[in-house]
Amino acid sequence: MNSKIGFIGAGNMTYAIVSGLVNSYPDDKQNIYVSSRTVEKAEIFCKEFDVSLAVNNRDLVKNCEIIVLAVKPVKYEEVLNEIKDIVTSKHVIVSLAAGIEIKYIEQFFDEPTKIVRTMPNTPVLVGAGMTAVTKNDHLSQEDLEAVLNLFESIGRVDVIDESLMDSIPAISGSSPAYVYIFIEALADGGVLQGLSREKAYKYAAQAVLGAAKMVLEKEKHPGELKDMVCSPAGATIEAVYSLEKSNFRGAVIRAMNACTEKVKQMGKMKD
Ligand SMILES: NC(=O)C1=CN([C@@H]2O[C@H](COP(=O)(O)OP(=O)(O)OC[C@H]3O[C@@H](n4cnc5c(N)ncnc54)[C@H](OP(=O)(O)O)[C@@H]3O)[C@@H](O)[C@H]2O)C=CC1
Ligand SMILES: O=C(O)[C@@H]1CCC=N1
């Protein structure tokens, strides 16, 4: 880690990213700073990970080059007003917020400021995150590489056009939540049929992990991979038929549309 990185907000996403970074950079823990509204929470957090405590958000900005805004979208105005006069052209501001556009953050600063908008997900905690990244024109290639390196150390990264950013929560930022529901449902079905709860979670989660690896590592269409499982007149096609009758795909796509709709509303709520 070549820069000091500071997290404003010690909530779920900071927990996930810092856990991942501490695993990837065990010798650089002291270069990770955290501040939060409730200082006691930040203290507990810093003790757990052996990272540096910033006593407040301004102290964090003074100590770090990369500043991650890990507060809810509605808190952006408050936090940006608090730090704007001490942010310099050397800092890189990294936003995690769903729905917040780069131009909204830019308007707080009188001078050109380096801003990166990202959408990670909680699996960064285990080094298996998916992070979409977009940036403004004030970053050098070196600045961008520094941010990409951080997220690449805790998962996969993709640089995209900002026009696509509002669509990313639905497909990867929020989707771990739907996958956990799917895993719970698989496990409940297993328990119903007599498996222990412990075994049911292990079998369900490993099946989801394995299926995802097949999609990522084999150059095959997911439909072809599904067909490989469905023996003619076999058991799997009965399950697939039942899911299709329940509009499984439609339910997922409808949920994603609801997610994106909310992301767009959250982007407007901060105005
Ligand atoms: N959770 C997720 O899976 C993902 C979240 N995100 C984005 O990450 C951001 C954070 O989300 P998440 O971690 O889930 O939210 P949380 O509610 O878990 O955490 C937010 C944190 O911000 C702190 N906070 C609030 N106001 C301030 C302030 N003025 N100064 C410093 N800290 C403050 C809160 O402290 P306190 O508890 O004391 O109020 C809390 O620790 C959001 O913008 C979200 O859109 C992006 C991708 C995935
Ligand atoms: O629920 C949320 O608003 C955030 C955005 C992506 C995941 N969690």
UniProtKB/TrEMBL annotation:
Belongs to the pyrroline-5-carboxylate reductase family. HAMAP family: P5C_reductase. Keywords: Amino-acid biosynthesis, Cytoplasm, NADP, Oxidoreductase, Proline biosynthesis. It is found in: Cytoplasm. GO terms for cellular component: cytoplasm. Signal peptide: none annotated. NCBIfam families: proC. NADPH binds at residue 57. GO terms for biological process: L-proline biosynthetic process. PANTHER family: PYRROLINE-5-CARBOXYLATE REDUCTASE (PTHR11645), PYRROLINE-5-CARBOXYLATE REDUCTASE 3 (PTHR11645:SF0). PROSITE patterns: P5CR. Its EC number is 1.5.1.2. Its main location: cytoplasm. Residues 4-99 form the Pyrroline-5-carboxylate reductase catalytic N-terminal domain. NADP(+) binds at residues 8-13, 36, 70-73. This is Pyrroline-5-carboxylate reductase. It comes from Anaerosolibacter carboniphilus. It catalyses: L-proline + NAD(+) = (S)-1-pyrroline-5-carboxylate + NADH + 2 H(+); L-proline + NADP(+) = (S)-1-pyrroline-5-carboxylate + NADPH + 2 H(+). Transmembrane segments: none annotated. The lineage of its organism: Bacteria, Bacillati, Bacillota, Clostridia, Peptostreptococcales. GO terms for molecular function: pyrroline-5-carboxylate reductase activity. Pfam families: F420_oxidored, P5CR_dimer. Residues 162-266 form the Pyrroline-5-carboxylate reductase dimerisation domain. Catalyzes the reduction of 1-pyrroline-5-carboxylate (PCA) to L-proline. It is an enzyme of class 1 (oxidoreductase).
